[in-house]
Design a protein that fits this description.
By secondary structure, the chain is of the alpha+beta class. Helix content is 43%, strand content 17%. A hairpin with a 5-residue loop joins β8 and β9. α7 packs across α8, α7 packs antiparallel against α19 and α11 packs across α18.
Length: 603
Amino acid sequence: MAESHRLATPAPAGPRAPHRPARYSVLSLPASGPRRPEPGLVAGPFETQGRCVSAALLTGMPGFAEGPFTVDGRTAVGEVTLHNRDELHATLAAAGHPAEPACPDGELLLRCWLALGPDGLRPADGLFTLAVLDGPDLVLIRDQMGARTAFHCRTRDGGWAVSSSLLHLRQRPDVDTGLDLAAVRSFLTFAYLPGTETLLRGVSELLPGKVTRLGADGEVRVEEYWEPQAGSPDVDLTISHHGSVLRELLERAVARRLPDGEDVAVLLSGGVDSSLVTALAARLHDRPVHTYSISFGNELPNELGYSGLVATHCGTRHRVLTVPGEQVAARLADTVALLDSPVGDPLTVPNLMLAEAVAGDGLSVSLNGEGGDPVFGGPKNLPMLVFELLRDDPSERARADAYLHTYRKCWEDLPVLLTGEALAELDALGPAAHPRRHVAPYLTDRRMPSLLDQLLHCNLRTKGAHHILTKVERLTSSQGIQGRSPLFDRQVVEHAFATPPTLKLRATEEKWILKEAVRDLLPDTVTYRPKSGMRVPVQQWLRGPLAEHTADLLLGPTARARGLFRADTVQTWMRGGGLLLPRQGGKLWLLLTLELWLRAYDL
């Protein structure tokens, strides 16, 4: 067919244009339907097998989208950053499908998938989503950990619309969507949205480590290409073996993420995770390392003593950013609007300010210590281990519900927080829409024989992919920065799950094997100190610079007309009553960020 010939023809070779910040979209629509101009088109529209397919770059939306790349009749766009290009080139050459050494990362990933299928994606190390026009179908690929993401939905005429920007799908006139109440309940339970769920009804997020094919017939087919595997509980390989292999993998993970010929930033909290990344970056990089920490004022508990100690020990160029509550209040709405889904994390504005500081210093890559807890085991697992010892209900549902309790958000408050109308609508959805559906499969997965590994797997696939990594990516990319997380490196994660649970939690010492692997890099006062964390003054903000704004938002006519929350409960929480423990601040923060996000998305 002439159309397939057009689809297969690559664009003429030439010098690459400078990168402009962008997200991307792809479409597969019935060819007989009405057409409207699509801004940013870079490939198509092509007609093939009764469908009209196209790809576009959405400039003006901060991101790293590039393309199109055309190989063997398939055209793709994506946001792809690969850290192991040499390895992938060697794999393609060995398979008889060599690629040009200078081909873009997105084209290289496309070639790996076309030549080797899932086996070609599995070794890819990086941050990526790739959208492929494959005849009338759309094929969507998301990286193993979920560092970047994209979304898909049906159009009114029976087509498919895909974008790495959820806002773009919300604004499309051919997409019918509204507020998904089940997703509201999930957000109030987790403080983020796990799984495929989004707050836009009918719009789904891609899952990490999966290839999703959107068929012209409306069918969605998902193929897994990577998932961590549990190792044997046998410790015969010796502690030193596990520690030395982990150390080698950590060094490689950091080295791969260092920018060539440029200084690098590291976000340094003072905890062991960000400290070890700082120490390895300082040891392995041939350029200066800049470290950044946050302060909310000396009167609050903080980790500045530890971060300053690490910065001095590693010889970095260190900056401490003081974040006043007035700035948080002034910038919260704009920061929330940068996110595809709201995040009930009071560090969003400080995280954005860190990204701005990194960009202001002329740096383009920022490393962080995210991943230590979901990969090697942090304090969230201990309540579940205690529950398992003491529980009198052996059901799988009891375990899932106990896990939801550990989040300590608004799940238990829903009967008094949500209006009667909202509760009735949720009841009508039945148990299949309950938030426990997001965690129960991981907590009963027989492929993970130990409870600790089941908990880590659940945390990796929920909070890791749908909160930690996506928040980092959206906030850093808004400033043209690439946020990279060495502890989420694929091989590091694989080794962590292959490590016996007794080496990750040894007696009462959490992340023990990780600390053993890096103990020569840092002072013992940093490596083996108790986890304390930085206290974020949410209560002070809500009673101070955010007080009037919070009342206007949560008790004003717009929120009341939406009919989600009981005004009397919100008023009680704002007065500091209604709960045995003083956790109203964190719960009000969830409501505030949700309200701001809903307004940004005109919901």
